[in-house]
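Handout, section B. The chain below has 106 residues.
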Amino acid sequence: MIKSIFYVSQKTVAWPDDGPDVEAITAVATSRNAILGVTGALISTDHFFAQILEGPEAAVDDVMASILRDARHRSVKVLADGNMRSDGSPSGPWPSRGVHRRSATT
């Protein structure tokens, strides 16, 4: 089965000083995830990361364990965690979730 996980975390270094952290995370993830067969997308806002990861269950668990140990993330919250069938459809109930980013002036 393919595992899919979606999490958010608070950055330990906020924008605009987070450039080196985001570049380092992206560089390591690109090479490591290719070897592990994990795909994903990282979103970086002023104060938060959001990421979806998909791949073999053990590999996604290994990547997630690495993220939980990473000092650049704090308050990691998993919003969705489940397995998918080989055709890409969820194997369990996946609720719809909306994400809305408010500006600092709202």
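Note. Confidence is low (pLDDT under 50) at residues 93-106. Compare this with the example in section A.
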